[in-house]
Design brief:
The structure is a single chain. It contains two helices and four strands. Helices cover about 30% and strands about 20% of the residues. The strands form two sheets. A two-stranded antiparallel ribbon has the order 1-2. Strands 3-4 form a two-stranded antiparallel sheet. By secondary structure, it is of the alpha+beta class. The protein starts with 5 loop residues before the first strand and ends with a helix. Strand 1 and strand 2 (about 15) form a beta hairpin.
Length: about 90
């Protein structure tokens, strides 16, 4: 795609053509970075690492190699929560 139109709305937001949204895999809330401006020409890009995200389900497994045991951290957090609740009931 050589170029595509973005429409600037009254509130300052942009509206992209359906073709542009499809090519860049844009969904509501997608952020664009201004990467270059030369005279009347402005270039945007989808920030690195976000173009492959297709909702929260695409995040599955991203912490699999984490050195932190998330289940253990959650268990400790729950113990702290229960201890705090018990202080109010004693």
């Amino acid at each position: 795609m050589a170029s595509a139109a973005l429409i600037v709305k009254d509130d300052g937001s942009f509206e992209a053509t359906p073709e542009l949204r499809e090519v860049l895999h844009m969904q509501p809330g997608t952020r664009l970075e201004l990467v270059e401006r030369e005279g009347d020409e402005v270039r945007f890009r989808v920030p690195a690492g976000t173009e492959d995200l297709q909702g929260w389900r695409s995040l599955r497994g991203m912490l699999a190699d984490s050195p932190v045991d998330l289940n253990e951290e959650r268990r400790k957090e729950r113990e702290r929560e229960l201890a705090a609740e018990n202080r109010w009931h004693e």
